[in-house]
Amino acid sequence: MNKSTSATPARRSDATRQAILEAARERFAADGYERATIRAIAQQAKIDPSMVMRYYGNKEGLFAAAVAIDLKLPDAGSLPRGEAGRALVTHFLHQWEENEVLTALLRVGVTNDAGAERMRGIFSDQLLPLARRLCPDPEQAPARAALVSSQLLGLALTRYVLCFPPAVHLHPEEITAWLAPTVQHYLTAPHPGA
């Protein structure tokens, strides 16, 4: 069999999967998890709904695949401890500006248990190791990672989802100047009860 002939179905399959995921991200972002339907996603991807089910099994499987997110956090080993707050705020601002999937997940997460669980998992799996490396007491890392998440997710909610005009109009440098000291404090300050 000709190599180009055998590669064609695989490329077609990859293209179909990509079209489904792109349509799913748009529908979940626009409609939320509950109102987004397999039929609407398939229609937007210009495929039969049975193809969505074939590749992803059900709506929950599709949602999990559509919002698989690598936060691409800075490497904890190369991050100067005293600059962690600034680096994280700057990094997350860039992520929120560039990654519509992250914003879609936040929208779904505030209204749906599956979305909230997915967001908790992403932040726990990816932010917790960084907090463990930076905080003075590794046993406090989960609480400190949760506090950092509250700042970053709160900013994202007000700036990118609810679109509070003052939050939307703040320059990224100004946001960093306000939030970085707080995030730094959460990560590296001694425990308040100590």
From TrEMBL:
The record's InterPro entries line, in alphabetical order, gives: Homeodomain-like_sf, HTH-type_TetR-like_transc_reg, HTH_TetR, Tet_transcr_reg_TetR-rel_C_sf, TetR_C_16
Matching Pfam families: TetR_C_16 (PF17920), TetR_N (PF00440)
Positions in coiled-coil regions? none
* Matches recorded under Gene3D superfamilies: Homeodomain-like (1.10.10.60), Tetracycline Repressor, domain 2 (1.10.357.10)
Sequence ranges assigned to domain HTH tetR-type in this UniProt record: 14-74
SUPFAM superfamilies to which the protein is assigned, alphabetical: Homeodomain-like, Tetracyclin repressor-like, C-terminal domain
Q: Which residues bind DNA?
A: 37-56
> Among its keywords, does the record have Disulfide bond?
no
Keywords per UniProt: DNA-binding, Transcription, Transcription regulation
- State the protein's name: TetR family transcriptional regulator
